[in-house]
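As the work plan foresaw, the team has encoded backbone shapes as discrete tokens. One protein thus recorded appears below exactly as we store it.

:::
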Amino acid sequence: STVQINLLTPEQVYAAYHNDSDLHSQTQPVGPTLYFEDHSHMPRYYDMISGSLYSDYLLAMWLNSKSADKDPVSFTKFLITHEIENVDGIIENVDGIGTRGFLDQPSMWYLIGTQDLQDLATAMTVIPLFHQNQEFAMIKDNHRGLLLGGQRRPLGMPEKVLGMYVLLADDSMAGYHTSDTWEPLLYPYQQTGANLLFFTFINPESMEVPVSFKKLAATRGKNTEGAVPADTRIIFAVGGEAYSEHPNPWDWLTTRAKAEAMAVKVAHWRADYGIDGIDLDIEAGAGSNKIAGPNMVHFIRKLKSFHPDLIVSQPTYGSPQIQAEIDVINASWNPDGTSNGVADSIGIMLYVGTQALTWVNQFAEGISQGGLIKVNVPKTDILVGCKGSASSGTISELAHASVSQDLLGLMVWFCSVKKGPVYNRWDDCSSSKDSMGGYVDAMKYFQDQTR
């Protein structure tokens, strides 16, 4: 039978956490563990090896139950009555994820959706519940029950992508360093002419999320001036050309242990900022190190062990020549085009007219090409490059080719935002009214084709 839970107030939960910690059982997760919190800051854990669910919510359930006796014995009986086992309370640190301090930090929420759990575990029944305008899912199998908070689940890759690299941070540009505070705002054409935004760039030396990223990500769905629309995907882009030249190498790609430790850190980004994915733009320099590619694959696999549905995109030159990019692509698909669950898409970094289209078969028919790509990447996973200031005619041609050739869509380099940094005006989407209109028209064309 399903356990119906009466939610406690945050104050009750906080009191239960601080005053009754001796009631927690001592069972510890044995493998990589997802950490998250619901709307009232209740800690949650999902053990990805054993498939066990852990939660202090069980203590909250008990404290709010009709049981007159509030002691460890009655708590144990409560768990047995509700067929709940393998329960744990607060864990000081699980694989680097989750500490007691998170209880006092409202921003540290991981809002998990029902599909996430269906991807991670099988044989579970999901029963929708509602409370204070928040949607929840009651997960119940033969042994465990848990209420999981949910505000939004990752959107996943659109059927047809119009993705723009929006420049928000660069540690070489005064006023736009990782730590600099300013208020980025999208232009109207970016709100209606794109369904995916690559926030550009995170410095791979520090791997700290820029303040500007945090500010713009926090606007999603708010309907305010310059805000990110609710259904627009947010991808954090790491690296880029300059950051591949220095630092070189990227320290966290020098060993498997460092790569996997970085994945644990990056796993927080979806919880902290609500992102839908990351873009791994490792180019000449750092990407030419032989150890970078294999360790990047270790990084992605570890990250995917926490978030299987997090989008991972891999940019590549049209003519494959960067070893790390080649390694990731060859690890991500099989010769028959089936996925290995590593990268989800590639983007051809050629931004002259429609020339990116001429390189599609280098990847889609990698085996027959006899080159460095040893797999066939499905065309539905391939983005073609488009210069930001491309003419509306070029944009339209690329959009129509994406539909006729069943490609994933367009990857646009680059677009400045209001008050934001600009590399150069001749490549910038925002410098051309014709380009801006072209992207809005292309997005409408994609929407019409996928209805």
User: Anything to note?
Assistant: Residues 1-64, 70-76, 78-153 have pLDDT under 50 and may be disordered. The two ends are 40 Å apart (CA to CA). The first strand starts at residue 33 and ends at 37.
